[in-house]
Amino acid sequence: MVKYYKTGERGVTDFMKYFSRVMAVLVAVLMVVFAAGCSSGAGSNKSAAHAPDVVNGTAENGLNTDEGTYAQNTPATTSSSAAPAKDSRKIIKTAQINLETVTYDSSIVKLEAIVAQYGGYIQDSEVQGRGEGSSTEERTASYTVMVPAPKLSDFLGSVGNVGKIRSKVIKGEDVTQQYTDTQSKLKMLDTEQDRLLDFMKKASTMADMLTVEKQLTEVQTQIEELTTDIKQWDTLVSLSTVTITVSEVSELTTAPGVGFGGKIASFFSASVKALGKFIEVITLGLVAALPFLVFFGVIAVIVLVIIRFTRRRRKKKLP
User: What are the CA-CA distances from residue 135 to residues 130, 289, 290 (Å)?
Assistant: First the structure.
């Protein structure tokens, strides 16, 4: 916009004021443009710093850019080093429980029914002690039972109702690391087996074929061994091993009393029971020794009679 200004001192003053205003506006506009340029440049640098470098169509994080997508670069993990999830851990659980009962026969029947109820089975069993109808010795039965691992806790609770629990031990062995390492080795051996089979197809001489066949046999042997280990672990993890001992007693063991008075009562009761046992053992010993006492008593009487008869005859022969 062009504007006419009068000449003279006043005109010069007005022109200078107008010129200073125009310059101030231009400076303000330049500052705004400069600030906007710096802001966009910083944003571009920041984006460039976070964007993956692409060389020959491949991003720095190792992903193919031809697919039009990018993914965050995560560190590679192997099955042996990665921490397994809690639910996927391989834990072998075993338990041992000792029971005593005064009703031995019914307790054994109840125990076998509980094993079947929880979907388990008896792997081994052993019974020691007296035969049925005899009262000379108390009996003891030992069982090795396989029970589904998820039902182990409930199973032990039900077994505890068969008799009085004297001891109970539960153990767990974590084989997750060994299991994972074995799986990784098995995958590598499977790959090696496929490679050797391919080499065998391409072998041109008998010597090459024999060499490849020898290596293939070794690989297949290792595959069978590792597969057997994995199957065994799967069985032990899915089925818990429980050792159960049932002892027949004439009287259940009572827990010691609480406090000084309770302890005195417990010791006195235990002493009375021990005395009764001692008298019982002495009586049974005397009864067991009675036939021998009678036998040796008869022999002693016969010997005494012979000695007296011999002495009388000697006395009669004397003048």
Answer: 7, 18, 19
- Residue type for 42, please? A
Q: Which amino acid is at 263?
A: K
Task: Give me the amino acid identity at 152.
Answer: L
Question: Residue 159 carries which side chain, given as an amino acid letter?
Answer: V
Beta bridge partners of 145: 122, 242
Query: Residue written as tokens 């057997």?
Result: 228
How many Å apart are CA 143 and CA 95, to the nearest integer?
Answer: 12
b/e sequence 263-276, b meaning 16+ C-beta within 10 Å: eeeeeeeeeeeeee
Decide if 173 contacts 186 (C-beta within 8 A): no
Tell me the residue length of the chain: 319
3-state secondary structure at position 54 = strand
Condensed to tens digits (0 to 9), the pLDDT of residues 76-112 reads 334 444 445 555 789 999 999 999 999 999 999 999 9
C-alpha 228/C-alpha 196 separation (Å) is 22
On whether the CB atoms of residues 63 and 54 are closer than 8 A, the answer is no
Helical axes 152-159 vs 104-117, angle rounded to 10°: 160
pLDDT digits (tens, 9 = 90+) for 254-287: 666 567 776 777 777 778 777 887 888 888 888 8
Whole-angstrom distance, CA of residue 232 vs CA of residue 92: 11
DSSP 82-100: SPPPGGG--EEEEEEEEEE
Q: Give the predicted TM-score (pTM) of the model.
A: 0.52
State the Cα–Cα distance between residues 106 and 26, nearest whole angstrom.
Answer: 108
CB neighbour list of residue 68: distance below 8 Å, 6 or more residues apart: none
Angle between helix axes 206-238 and 176-202 (nearest 10 degrees) is 160
Torsion from C-alpha of 183, 186, 190, 196, nearest 10 degrees: 160
Tell me the two tokens of residue 94. 């075993």
Q: Which one, of 152, 223, 239, 147, lies nearest residue 190 by Cα?
A: 223
SS3 134: coil
